[in-house]
Fold each of these.
Amino acid sequence: RFSIKEAIYKALDPMVQRYIGFREVALQWQDQHASVAPLRLDGNWFAVEVWWTEFDGFWLSTARARRA
């Protein structure tokens, strides 16, 4: 989960340009899938998509964010 949230913060940083607290982003879990709860930061709404996979015992997480 930490890896997924870190990927989200890195995707949002160029648009928000400030520290994003750990509790500002909420993941919604269903079985083996996660989605990002509707996200409003600094008066702007963002759509965020996440993907992750295990590779040789390591976790690779990526995220894509855009203004909604």
Amino acid sequence: MDYSKKKILVTGGTGSFGNFIVRRFLDLGAAEVRVFSRDEKKQHDMRVFYRGRKDLSFFIGDVRDRNSLDEAMSGIDIVFHAAALKQVPACENFPDEAILTNVTGAQNVVDAALHHHPETVVMISTDK
């Protein structure tokens, strides 16, 4: 696929998988890759690592917040949803937080995609 005209949103773009897929799409020549996450420090570290690339942008937000998703998803062609709480002990100790992120957050991504009509949405999951 030719990604040179594709705008891609990666939720959880500062996480382990998200960071990998961001780099892959940049290497494939995507027109724009948007990193969406709530971790400002990791976003800063990525900005420093990529040294101001024009094809990379950052959105502070949380999949729990539909409004921040709508802003980040506007004009996007492809969505990779990788935002999640994946550490089993954290999810066991804070089940309400896990549900808000992993269930409500995933539903918010679906709802935002239905509103914005990207051509492709990929929802990944860990084994957790």
Amino acid sequence: NVGRLCNQACKHCHVDASPKRTEIMRRETIDEILRVLRDFKIPTLDITGGAPELNPDFRYFVSEAGKLNVKIMVRHNLT
């Protein structure tokens, strides 16, 4: 979960995400996750949020994970 920022505020949201939420994963944490993926040869990265694509480091995260040859899943609300 890369944060609780979302472009929607659905009552059924399990993480209580919304446009008003400010919690977001920092680049340092993303780099640590990338290290763990590499060092432990974890085959799948499942990214979710809020709306994960609203994290300013989302493209970086996906791009760097792709270099590790892992399966990348992104769960988002499609809007």
